[in-house]
């Protein structure tokens, strides 16, 4: 074998190893995620038109396919959003989301639960926030939790995604029960908030509504407002599908009645996420969680010592 020949073969081998390990695209390496249980398959999808109603910007909400899909749009005139008709006490909440392409700096797509409308001074919140980006950057996924109004302590974590969220639909899910809160992306847990480790006084514990919104976050989203929304690229269209909202139902009109699974002290119907299989993560899910956090998380409030002189208790656990 000639030297050149050898070199050629070696470089072929090298290229094939590279292409197997990571598909390199213009936006950097795409990692192959570990396989995990498909939690989303356990819960039925339901039309947006059945479970959600207009929160704001009705003219920028377009239901499709008989309500199984919804586009929510931000343009110069307005953003838009949907809110669940019911409130929920615990449950599994998920949507498949496809984000707008191109320069989206300042655009925020949020998929979250909140009860700030009912408890303005001591509200709870569980948030997915997808933050748009200027040219040549990528969408950032932020998660956050507020419990009983502790708004002074933001519990933000930020991730880069291991896929391009503008090309296809990807599933963003929240599981919330008395044991833990789990954020999942395509069924891979990216964050787990365990009840014991967080002081019970700041664990989201009151019924919440489910929201999805798209809005102009120029003031804070992209490097603190350095790159505001550029409406030259509007409209910004986020497409949503595969809505899952399975939880203990609360009447919207009677905020004192307990959830439908929690009426009095006996369970009426079973809480869909209160069974043994939802008490803690499986070993596969734990491996997925470690993978996501070690490879894709780039900010955690727990590491932010410039922001917190004394880190919140769960960060020291
Ligand atoms: C559309 O949705 C309505 C209400 O959910 C349902 O009654 C109807 O059968 C659906 N139509 C089709 C074609 O799926
Ligand atoms: C939540 O806050 C309210 C009002 O500040 C307080 O009365 C209540 O005890 C708190 N709940 C928990 C679980 O700490
Ligand atoms: C609200 O719920 C409570 C507890 O279930 C019940 O006692 C009360 O009658 C309800 N109020 C209304 C207006 O339905």
TrEMBL record:
Residue numbers annotated as active site: 125 (nucleophile), 129 (proton donor)
Family: Belongs to the glycosyl hydrolase 16 family.
Family matches, as InterPro entries: Beta-glucanase-like (IPR000757), Beta-glucanase/XTH (IPR044791), ConA-like_dom_sf (IPR013320), XET_C (IPR010713), XTH (IPR016455)
Signal peptide region: 1-19
Role noted for this protein: Catalyzes xyloglucan endohydrolysis (XEH) and/or endotransglycosylation (XET). Cleaves and religates xyloglucan polymers, an essential constituent of the primary cell wall, and thereby participates in cell wall construction of growing tissues.
PROSITE patterns found in the cross-reference section: GH16_2 (PS51762)
Occurrences of domain GH16 (ranges): 36-240
Listed GO biological process terms: cell wall biogenesis; cell wall organization; xyloglucan metabolic process
Annotated GO MF terms: hydrolase activity, hydrolyzing O-glycosyl compounds; xyloglucan:xyloglucosyl transferase activity
GO cellular component: apoplast
Protein location: Secreted, Cell wall; Secreted, Extracellular space, Apoplast
PTM comment: Contains at least one intrachain disulfide bond essential for its enzymatic activity.
Superkingdom of this protein's organism: Eukaryota
Name of protein: Xyloglucan endotransglucosylase/hydrolase
Gene3D superfamilies: 2.60.120.200
Keywords, comma-separated and alphabetical: Apoplast, Cell wall, Cell wall biogenesis/degradation, Disulfide bond, Glycosidase, Hydrolase, Secreted, Signal, Transferase
E.C. number(s) listed in UniProt: 2.4.1.207
